[in-house]
Design a protein that fits this description.
Blueprint: E1 7-14, H1 18-25, E2 31-36, E3 42-49, H2 55-68, E4 76-80, H3 86-92, E5 97-99, E6 102-105, E7 118-121, H4 134-149, E8 155-158, H5 164-173, E9 177-181, H6 184-196, E10 203-207, H7 214-219, E11 222-228, H8 231-236, H9 238-244, E12 245-257, H10 261-269, E13 273-281, E14 284-291
Parallel strand pairs: 6-7, 8-9, 8-11, 9-10, 11-12
Antiparallel strand pairs: 1-3, 1-4, 2-3, 5-6, 12-14, 13-14
Helix pairs in contact: 1-2, 4-5
Length: 294
């Protein structure tokens, strides 16, 4: 009998709670996945851990979110995984997908990238952003839309995860991109992905919080800023975003649910930004804002 290849924390929550539970479990896990059980209904979340997670830590993380939403404790369980490479299996179940002019594929893909598409090699890994989530898709559609009108010279990706959006900008615009993330593992994965996609000379990935990273401050202002994080951090960073965005520049904001649009827009309109376009898909939103020329 083989040893367990890790552990899985599993729970069922509502779609509006997925992000919050994901953030709470993130420090305990190396990868988190969420699947819609029934369209418009509940979602199954799975958090994968290398070692057996502390039961009290899991309980506390789930309780904090349940209390925040004023709901009862959702049923959850912790179970050992069978002895196999679940990450490799996850990669195999990640089919190539076309989105606008982008073609997202894993390293197991043996076909050819369509001639008219920009290829993005991203494996299912320990950083968020394989192109499957609606927020990532909304951002890619927004980058595609902006890129068809003009080529931004300086671009920034705040909360870069796997680096998929930074790489999309580098390949679309052939201009330098700075990316940052608060999670060291995401920074490691993103740097690795830039090498695999041959854009490591264009994309610089830094570890740090928001706009405080010295390299980000040094290169401002930016023609395009992408921030695929969460609604409340977006609101808190609105003033910093304006300070780093060039007059006439654009910002793509995502990681928010449809009902959070008004809150995020209000925070940015107070900074003189206006809504240009929005993409809505399966309850999630991506907003394209513009800073008026001073």
């Amino acid at each position: 009998m083989g040893h367990s290849s890790g552990y899985k924390i599993e729970l069922v929550v509502r779609q509006s709670q997925v992000n919050a539970f994901g953030e709470a479990l993130d420090p305990l896990a190396v990868a988190i996945a969420a699947f819609e059980i029934v369209p418009g209904g509940e979602w199954r979340m799975e958090a994968y851990c290398v070692d057996e997670p502390d039961a009290e830590a899991v309980k506390d993380a789930i309780r904090v979110v349940a209390d925040a939403f004023n709901i009862g404790m959702p049923a959850y369980h912790i179970a050992p995984l069978p002895p196999k490479d679940w990450l490799a299996e996850n990669r195999q179940s990640f089919p190539p997908q076309g989105l606008g002019r982008y073609f997202i594929y894993g390293s197991h893909f043996e076909g050819k990238i369509p001639a008219s598409r920009i290829g993005l090699l991203v494996d299912a890994a320990t950083a968020f952003g394989s192109g499957e989530h609606e927020t990532t898709r909304g951002c890619l559609q927004s980058i595609d839309m902006i890129g068809r009108r003009k080529k931004p010279k300086r671009t920034l990706d705040v909360g870069s995860g796997s680096g998929i959006l930074a790489m999309a900008m580098a390949k679309s615009f052939r201009r330098p991109v700075i990316a940052s993330d608060l999670d060291r593992e995401s920074v490691r994965v993103a740097r690795e992905n830039t090498v695999l996609n041959r854009v490591n000379k264009l994309v610089r990935v830094e570890y740090g919080a928001g706009y405080r990273v010295p390299a980000i401050r040094a290169k401002r202002p930016y023609d395009l800023i992408v921030a695929n994080i969460l609604a409340r951090p977006l609101c808190m960073l609105a003033k910093d975003l304006k300070a780093h965005l060039a007059p006439g520049g654009h910002a793509i904001l995502s990681g928010l649910l449809n009902h959070q649009e008004a809150m995020v827009l209000a925070a940015h309109r107070a900074q003189g930004l206006r809504l240009v376009h929005k993409f809505q898909r399966k309850g999630w939103s991506a907003l394209v804002l513009a800073r008026t020329r001073d």
